[in-house]
Write a structure and sequence with these properties.
Number of helices: 12
Number of strands: 8
CATH topology: TIM Barrel
Strand content: 5-15%
Radius of gyration: 19 Å
Structural class: alpha/beta
CATH architecture: Alpha-Beta Barrel
Helix content: 40-55%
Order of helices and strands: EHEHHEHEHEHHEHEHEHHH
Largest sheet: 8 strands, parallel
Number of domains: 1
Strand order of the largest sheet: 1-2-3-4-5-6-7-8
C-alpha cells in the first residue's frame, strides 16, 4: 500500500495496479502546508484533502485521522466526516495531541482508558451508520514498552477495531509478537530509515501481516526528483528525467475531458 498525499499521487498508485492507498498525514502536512507532522494541520484541512483524493480514484483509501482531533465525541464526528468524504477506513491513534510522526522523538500517549474511549467512540460511529472501517493504532511501544502496546492492541480488537497497527516496533521479534497478538488484519509500516526493520512483502506475510504501508516512499521520491531537476535548471541544464508531455496530459485526464466535451458539441 503506497501512501498518497494528493489526488494525483493517489491516481498514480491506482494506475500502478495497487489495490488500495493511504492518505499520509505526514505527507499531506508537508505538501499542503510545508510544515511538519506535529498536529499543525487541522481536521478540516485533512478532510478537504481526503475528499479530493477519494474522488480521484476507484480503489479504497484509508485516511489518517490522527487522534480524532479532540475527545471521544470529536473522534465520532471525525469518523462520520471521513465516511462522508469517501474514505474506506480511518486510522485513529492513541497519542497525546498535538501528535507527532510515529518515528520521531518526543511522542506521548494518552492513558489506556482514554485510548479505549477513542476506539469505542469510533466503533459507535460505525454502529450508528458511518460506512467506514476503523484502523486502530498505538504508539505506546516507545513510551511504555512492548507489553503495554500489545495490551492496547488486544483491547482495540476487543472493542471492535477492524485493523490494528503497532507503530514503530524495533525488531523482527517485536513485529512477530504483534502479529501473534492480533487476531484480525495487522498493518506493517515500512518507513525507509525509520525505527522498524524494512522487510519485503514475502517476509512480512510470513510474519503474519496483511497490509504493508509505505508512508513516505512517494513523497521522498518526488522531492528527490524535484531537487535534481532544480539543481539542473540552476546550472543551465535542462532536466532529462521527465515524463513526456503527452503522458502527463493523459495522466491528468485531458483525453477523457476531450471525449466528454465532444459528446456535447
Amino acid at each position: 500500500m503506497p501512501c498518497c498525499f494528493d489526488a494525483l499521487s493517489a491516481r498514480l498508485v491506482e494506475a500502478a495496479g495497487f489495490p488500495l492507498t493511504f492518505m499520509s498525514g505526514f505527507a499531506v502536512s508537508a505538501t499542503r502546508l510545508g510544515m511538519p507532522d506535529t498536529g499543525l494541520i487541522s481536521y478540516a484541512e485533512m478532510l478537504e484533502q481526503g475528499r479530493d483524493i477519494c474522488a480521484a480514484v476507484q480503489i479504497p483509501v484509508i485516511g489518517d485521522a490522527d487522534t480524532g482531533y479532540g475527545n471521544a465525541v470529536n473522534v465520532k464526528r471525525t469518523l462520520q466526516g471521513y465516511a462522508r468524504a469517501g474514505f474506506a477506513c480511518a486510522m485513529i491513534e492513541d497519542q497525546v495531541w498535538p501528535k507527532r510522526c510515529g518515528h520521531t522523538e518526543g511522542k506521548q500517549v494518552v492513558s489506556r482508558d482514554e485510548a479505549f474511549a477513542r476506539v469505542r467512540a469510533a466503533v459507535d460511529a460505525k454502529r450508528e451508520g458511518a460506512d467506514i472501517l476503523l484502523l486502530a493504532r498505538t504508539d505506546a511501544r516507545q513510551t511504555h514498552g512492548l507489553d503495554e502496546a500489545l495490551a492496547r492492541i488486544h483491547g482495540f480488537e476487543e472493542l471492535g477495531a477492524d485493523i490494528v497497527f503497532l507503530e514503530a516496533p524495533e525488531s523482527v521479534e517485536e513485529m512477530r509478537a504483534f502479529c501473534q497478538t492480533a487476531r484480525g488484519p495487522a498493518l506493517a509500516n515500512m518507513l525507509e530509515h525509520g525505527k522498524t526493520p524494512l522487510l519485503g512483502p514475502a517476509a512480512l506475510e510470513e510474519l503474519g501481516f496483511k497490509i504493508a504501508a509505505y508512508p513516505l516512499t512517494l513523497l521522498s521520491s518526488a522531492v528527490a526528483a524535484m531537487q535534481t531537476a532544480l539543481r539542473d535548471l540552476s546550472r543551465g541544464i535542462h532536466p532529462q528525467q521527465l515524463l513526456p508531455f503527452s503522458e502527463l496530459q493523459e495522466l491528468v485526464g485531458f483525453a477523457k475531458y476531450d471525449r466528454e466535451r465532444a459528446r456535447y458539441e
